[in-house]
From TrEMBL:
Protein name (record): DUF4180 domain-containing protein
Species annotation: Conyzicola nivalis
Domain DUF4180 intervals: 20-129
Protein origin, superkingdom: Bacteria
InterPro entries from the UniProt entry: DUF4180
Amino acid sequence: MRPAALEHYRVSMRIEGVGGTRILFLETDGPALSTAEETSDLIGNAWFEHVGVVAIPVERIDPAFFDLSSQFAGQFAQKAVNYRVTVAVIGDIGAFESRSAAFRDFVWESNRGEHIWFVPDEATLTGKLATRAV
């Protein structure tokens, strides 16, 4: 039985397999993730669905995520670590990086790891997963 919390996102998501990894793609249209509860529901339900990666368009993330002083990005990252799910933020984050050296450093460090990735598009994400599988 699927947890009810995921139904909030069901209309604006799809799950695909890429190189042995199940990816939950949130579509661009839909509600923004703006609370710790919403990120917990999404990550927890992705884990329930045996998804290895949650791909979220930048448009679906509250701008507070990109302001590290809000602690939203750190809380989101901790959930990803706890549930062993990779979160991929898909889209142009250049404006956020240009406003904050700390955020730019966070992106650089995150992209070196396995818990949060920042990629420009879905093709880059699938390419990154292909190299990880090798």
